[in-house]
Design the sequence.
């Protein structure tokens, strides 16, 4: 696990703590589902990772979740996010991005997409485990919201 936590500037710890205290409503809604391993994996919130602070990170499936506000859809925001996503992909981390309005209006749908990605990441490498893609059931169930 330690190999995924790259060196990061000390200032990122202070930033991450502030972001945890000041989470957006959309981030709080997702955190209520992620906490206590409700999707079968441990998510961390506002995680310093290299030069960035990620909204949510699950190490075991190597999955980052970003909840984006309107500033991410400006030209400058798109360029910044593309650079960030490329950096994370180069370290084996898959990034899922969701509009904050989608999280607020359709949390169940967003959680289903995340859950399916977690399942795929966890079980695609082990053909002996049940998988919906191979005609088996899934070991975990999507939490009721």
Sequence:
């Amino acid at each position: 696990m330690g190999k995924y936590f790259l060196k990061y500037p000390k200032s990122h710890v202070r930033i991450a703590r502030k972001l945890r205290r000041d989470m957006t409503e959309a981030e709080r809604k997702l955190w209520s589902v992620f906490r206590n391993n409700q999707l079968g994996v441990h998510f961390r919130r506002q995680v310093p990772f290299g030069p960035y602070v990620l909204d949510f990170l699950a190490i075991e499936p190597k999955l980052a979740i970003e909840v984006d506000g309107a500033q991410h859809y400006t030209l400058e925001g798109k360029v910044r996010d593309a650079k960030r996503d490329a950096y994370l992909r180069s370290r084996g981390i898959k990034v899922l991005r969701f509009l904050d309005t989608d999280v607020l209006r359709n949390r169940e749908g967003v959680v289903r997409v995340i859950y399916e990605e977690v399942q795929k990441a966890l079980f695609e490498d082990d053909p002996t485990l049940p998988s919906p893609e191979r005609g088996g059931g899934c070991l975990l169930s999507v939490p009721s919201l």
In short: The radius of gyration is 16 Å.
